[in-house]
Specification:
seven-stranded mixed beta sheet, mainly beta
Length: 122
């Protein structure tokens, strides 16, 4: 089992920035961030490999968001810049992807955090 604790959500105006953090209860391999709005499936935002050397991004956030690993406690950060109202969602951290599965599919991931809300106003 892995417990994932997200932090850093909040409200910001369009064009602003936020940093989300995800702290796992133990060392994990690949980790990812997803987001979800009411009535929609979870959308893959970004994935990072266990060594932090490989990253992947969803099309809608590429160039604006950066996923990284902090040295302390295997924490994964998501730096979100140039935020848009369309980025408003509940953001979830995920860990342990099934081998050979697409990172951007929520069904590929075994463990999930409780989520942190991001609201971007225009």
């Amino acid at each position: 089992q892995v417990q994932l604790v997200e932090s850093g959500g909040g409200s910001v105006q369009a064009g602003g920035s936020l940093r989300l953090s995800c702290a796992p209860s133990r060392v994990t391999y690949n980790m990812a961030w997803f987001r979800q709005t009411p009535g929609k499936e979870r959308e893959g935002v970004a994935e990072i490999s266990n060594d932090g050397q490989n990253t992947f991004y969803g099309h809608s956030v590429k160039g604006r968001f950066t996923i990284s690993r902090a040295s302390a406690r295997n924490t994964v950060n998501l730096d979100m810049n140039s935020l848009e109202p369309e980025d408003s969602a509940m953001y979830y951290c995920a860990a342990e992807k099934s081998v050979g599965h697409t990172w951007s599919s929520e069904r590929s991931w075994r463990f999930w955090g409780q989520g942190t809300q991001v609201t971007v106003s225009s």
